[in-house]
User: What shape does this take?
Amino acid sequence: MDIKEKIEELWEKITADDGILEQFKEAPVQTVEKLLGIDLPDEKLREIVTAIKAKVDMDAIDAKLDVLADQLDDKLDALKTKVDMDAVDDKLDVLADKLEDKLGGLFGKK
Assistant: This one.
């Protein structure tokens, strides 16, 4: 039995069914043992459970990061609508002209 392959198979079964996922959260070792259908030493079962928990946790983290990325994107879109880049450009041009005039006056040019 290829352990990595079994972990992947179990992970797919557990995450595909909310009922099994809840069972796994409540009694992970028993759920894995039931899904495997074979009797393994508790140590091996705990290793498998640890690996599956890590994958489930990574899925949860990934989902949260997706939500955060979407929220950030929405906020950036909202900010873009509030900032009038043409107006900012015009103000920068005016400031650059004023600065140029001042600097030119310092060096005898105007």
Remarks:
- The chain has a mean pLDDT of 85.
- The chain has one domain: 3-106.
- The helical segments are 3-16, 18-26, 28-36, 42-82, 85-106.
